[in-house]
Specification:
By secondary structure, this protein is an alpha+beta fold. 58% of the residues lie in helices and 15% in strands. The strands form three sheets. Strands 3-2-1-6-5-4 form a six-stranded antiparallel β-sheet. Strands 12-13-11-14-15 form a five-stranded mixed β-sheet. It has a four-stranded antiparallel β-sheet with strand order 7-10-9-8. A hairpin with a 2-residue loop joins strand 8 and strand 9. Helix 3 runs parallel beside helix 8, helix 9 packs parallel to helix 12 and helix 14 packs across helix 15. It is extended and about 115 Å long.
Length: 645
């Protein structure tokens, strides 16, 4: 009977296959990268494994990579479906059109992992499509683009109702390039662009885009994915429009029902309150004007109290319940917005308040909150705009002077006037980073307020604040620096040091003017701090001969005039020789005896001339520091050719 060995080749093959698959199963389990699947094969070769073992590992690796690709594809499709489902769910819950559009571009950017996403809507009366919402955009010109039908990639999508994609827009000749569109795309730095239409039935209502700032090929699956999202977005836009129309109709019906239910006297009172508050809002009234108007309507005394001064428990109850609440003989209505307590309206000594009057007080509180928020938003927006314009003046090299002047004019600033650039910095650091950041924000806010009142600009920069203020006729830059240091220190109750540049002009036309002036202001600021003069304001002219080093332009004539100008003028008017006497005096080691020998005059003559020089220059003219400046001025006087001897 034929005998077989206990371990034949047929019996060992499955074991070898299982052994070969084991390391790849581990890699699949931990989600390793594709490169990691080469390691088991390389390790086996390094260990001298048999060809059969290596072949088994190669087969297992190929199988594992196919499984990995399949798993990755499933995970990707699952993520896309999940994202589309979440998007549909989120959009279904939105009621405001602006919020809908913002959610659309945010989802589009997230789904495709692009640098920028944006959405345009068609404008049938004008026959073009315009930029409505952007996400990730940094260029103002790009955010304001309008595309004619058929122009650029987006205009072509809007015209043909078909998706278009380009890996490199600037080099793609399929599209109708225009100077305006290409400039906007170049400003944003976009290269690869994908656009899909937003369709309502057969009509295109806009275009949804995803774009990258580098060359990129959009796969067919990505185009289809963005198209699916665009379909949801179009439906959401349509729903939001319908909801807005429905809400407006319901609002009108509700107001009509209120008019029917209320008594004629209530209608008159409500109309009176509405007219008064509307008039206040239209003419820019403040919160105290609202309180005064409601006081007349309710026949009582209504006061506005800041959040810190408002009655705590009553205000909290009013904010929670959304109604005015009684507190003793008073009524309190919280003035709040978005969970933030802004203050309260307090009706004094009026315990008996009917529901209509209570509603009037509540409406007045709502109007007050809107006024406060509008004023805050306007202030913050203006501060940002002023800061952005000043940043452009300091940083931008290629800019349009006409646009800069127009932007400045909207802020009541004149870039053609003579200005001073000032660098302001806090001297004391906060107890912690948060406190220091808060103090810096207060400094920036105070600087913006000062700039707005002076028709200037301000921006946060380099850990401090930079200001650009117009220079009034007859005012020195050093005076502006001192005044600014005093105003800012007083406003924020902290020590603020300010350095100023020399007067500058042609800020819009000359690209480097503002930047060079800011560097000079920083040098003056650093000099003040090094000299122990924190909390002061100064320009280069305040530092004597040191100012020549600090100033960007070397005003030699100005330094000479400030230092020995009185002596020079005296010589010119009277024909005396005080400048030469002063020069000889220093050359002789401040010895009157050697001076008289050098000048060939009597020693009494030297004494008389020195006495006259002392009266012209002041009693400290021989102090070491002042003496050094005078000697330097004498030499510059000769070098610049002002000395006609």
């Amino acid at each position: 009977m034929e005998q077989h060995p206990p371990h034949s080749a047929a019996a060992s093959a499955p074991v070898a296959t299982g052994d070969a698959q084991a390391p790849f199963l581990a890699l699949l389990a931990r989600g390793a990268s594709a490169d990691a699947y080469e390691q088991p094969v390389l390790a086996a070769r390094a260990d001298g494994a048999t060809p059969a073992r290596i072949a088994a590992l190669e087969d297992a690796r190929r199988l594992a990579l196919r499984v990995r690709d399949e798993m990755e594809g499933r995970r990707r499709r699952e993520a896309e479906l999940s994202a589309l489902f979440e998007t549909a769910h989120d959009l279904a819950g939105l009621r405001d059109l602006d919020a809908v559009l913002q959610a659309i571009v945010q989802r589009a950017r997230s789904l495709l992992g692009t640098d920028v996403a944006y959405l345009t809507l068609n404008d049938p009366p004008r026959g073009d499509t315009y930029m409505r919402v952007t996400e990730g955009s940094v260029a103002a010109r790009f955010q304001q683009l309008r595309l004619g039908m058929g122009e650029g990639l987006g205009g072509l999508v809007a015209q043909t109702a078909r998706p278009y994609v380009t890996a490199n827009y600037g080099q793609d000749v399929r599209f109708q390039h225009t100077r305006t569109i290409d400039a906007g795309v170049q400003d944003e730095g976009l290269v690869a662009i994908l656009g899909v239409p937003l369709m309502l039935g057969p009509h295109v209502i806009g275009v949804l885009f995803a774009a990258d700032r580098r060359a990129r090929v959009f796969e067919r699956e990505q185009i289809a994915l963005l198209g699916s999202f665009a379909a949801l977005a179009a439906a959401a836009i349509d729903t939001a429009n319908l909801l807005t129309e429905t809400r407006e109709a319901l609002g009108e019906l509700e107001r009509a029902n209120e008019i029917i239910r209320d008594r004629s006297g209530v209608i008159e009172r409500a109309s009176d309150v509405h007219d008064r508050l509307a008039e206040l809002v239209l003419r820019g009234g403040g919160v105290h004007d609202v309180a005064a108007a409601v006081s007349q309507v309710l026949d009582g005394t209504v006061e506005f109290a800041d959040a810190d001064a408002a009655p705590g428990e009553a205000v909290e109850t009013s904010r929670t319940e959304g109604h005015a609440v009684r507190r003793g003989d008073d009524w309190v209505a919280a003035v709040a917005a978005g969970g933030e307590l802004l203050g309260a309206l307090v009706l004094r000594g009026h315990p008996g308040l009917d529901p209509v009057d209570q509603r009037t007080l509540e409406r007045a509180a709502m109007v007050t909150s809107l006024l406060l928020l509008a004023r805050r938003s306007a202030s913050e927006a203006e501060q940002r705009v002023r800061g952005e314009l000043l940043d452009d003046l300091l940083d931008a090299r290629d800019r349009d002077p006409r646009l800069l002047r127009e932007r400045a004019a909207r802020l009541h600033a004149d870039l053609d006037a003579t200005h001073v650039v000032l660098a302001a910095r806090l001297e004391a650091s906060g107890a912690d980073a948060e406190q220091e950041a808060a103090t810096r924000r207060r400094l920036w806010s105070a600087a913006n307020h000062l700039a707005a009142t002076r028709h200037g600009l301000a921006a946060a920069r380099d850990g401090g604040t930079v200001l650009l203020l117009p220079l009034r006729s007859g005012t020195a830059a050093s005076a502006v620096a001192r005044h600014t240091a005093e105003r800012l220190s007083s406003a924020i109750h902290e020590t603020v040091t300010v350095g100023a540049s020399a007067p500058v002009a042609d800020l819009a036309a000359q690209a480097d003017t503002a930047a060079v002036a800011y560097a000079e202001a920083q040098r003056c600021l650093d000099a003040l701090r090094l000299l122990g003069r924190a909390g002061e304001g100064a320009a280069a002219e305040d530092f004597g001969f040191l100012g020549l080093l600090l100033a960007d332009s070397r005003d030699l004539s100005g330094f000479v005039a400030r230092t020995i100008g009185e002596v020079v003028t005296y010589d010119e008017r009277r024909g005396t020789d005080l400048v030469r006497t002063l020069d000889a005096y220093y050359a002789s080691g401040t010895s009157p005896a050697r001076t008289k020998e050098a000048l060939h005059v009597h020693v009494n003559t030297v004494a008389q001339r020195l006495d006259r020089i002392g009266r012209l220059l002041g009693p400290d003219w021989q102090a070491p520091a002042r003496s050094l400046e005078i000697q330097l001025a004498l030499r510059l006087h000769r070098l610049t050719g002002q000395d006609r001897r």
